[in-house]
Design a protein that fits this description.
It contains 8 helices and 7 strands; from the N terminus they run E-H-E-H-E-H-E-H-E-H-E-H-H-E-H. The protein is an alpha/beta fold. The chain has one domain (7-238): Spore Coat Polysaccharide Biosynthesis Protein SpsA, Chain A (Alpha-Beta Complex). A 7-stranded mixed sheet has the order 3-2-1-4-6-5-7, sandwiched between helices. The radius of gyration is 17 Å and the shape is globular.
Length: 248
């Protein structure tokens, strides 16, 4: 049962994490400094290190997957928790320290103006200069161009995991069957935009990942491009619907 109270103001900071013991404790402390009244949920996607232990020690609530399900599945676990507990807003950021917690407040502000999805962009004017690996930069521009064309607005950073979501978008994801377990990127942006949810971008600070593996490393970019292209085609093939048809 959802908690009572001013649910529109209740904020959940959602951190999907897999083997992030090195950076997670400091990240949670910085999030707490920016949003002291927020609840922090770390979704531990079956890490092999002390990710969950460190998160609890830093004061976060932890949900642990018994097996590794993927980045998208970790986000979906967080959305379902936010749905169940009645949170009015969700901010999600990665557990590896790439996303600067000081950018949380600028992400939240457009929700007060009626937007449902606020993307943190590392490429908007005012953002810290970000140097993406060239192959990934090409992919960002390619899928960003497709999303921009499909939505009729500029999408500069379609792969950004630094986002703020309204409650009705959280409910749409939590109660639907459309959210992918692996890579929720341009395909989900196109889907929610065509369903009538309002999307905007704000400049945020992101840092390059210095070490460790990425969900876009190895042979995964090949799978990502094929999968994302097919998912985008599916999203474009669906008819537009009013939000009221999707969210109770």
């Amino acid at each position: 049962m959802a908690r009572e109270g001013n649910s529109a103001e209740r904020l959940l900071v959602l951190i999907p994490a897999f083997n992030e013991e090195r950076d997670l404790g400091g990240l949670i402390a910085r999030v707490r400094g920016v949003a002291p009244s927020a609840e922090i949920l770390v979704v531990d996607d079956c890490s092999r290190d002390r990710t969950g232990e460190i998160a609890r020690g830093a004061g976060a609530r932890v949900a642990r997957h018994p097996v590794n399900l993927g980045y998208g599945a970790a986000l979906l676990t967080g959305y379902r928790y936010a749905d169940r507990e009645g949170f009015g807003r969700v901010v999600q950021l990665d557990g590896d320290g790439q996303h600067e917690p000081e950018s949380i407040l600028p992400l939240l502000s457009p929700l007060d103006d009626g937007f449902d999805l606020v993307l943190g962009s590392r490429f908007r004017s005012g953002a810290r200069r970000y140097r993406a690996p060239w192959l990934r930069a090409v992919g960002m521009r390619f899928f960003g161009g497709i999303a921009s064309q499909a939505l009729g607005q500029r999408i500069s950073d379609p792969t950004s995991g630094f986002q703020a979501l309204s409650r009705r978008l959280v409910l749409f994801h939590s109660r639907g069957n459309h959210f992918p377990q692996d890579y929720p990127d341009a395909d989900i942006l196109i889907l929610v935009g065509r369903r009538g949810f309002r999307i905007t971008e704000v400049p945020v600070t992101m840092y390059e990942k210095p070490t460790g593996s990425s969900i876009h490393s190895g042979l995964r970019p090949i799978y990502y491009v094929i999968k994302m292209t097919l998912s985008i085609l599916l999203a474009l093939s669906e008819k537009r619907r009013a939000i009221d048809e999707e969210v109770p």
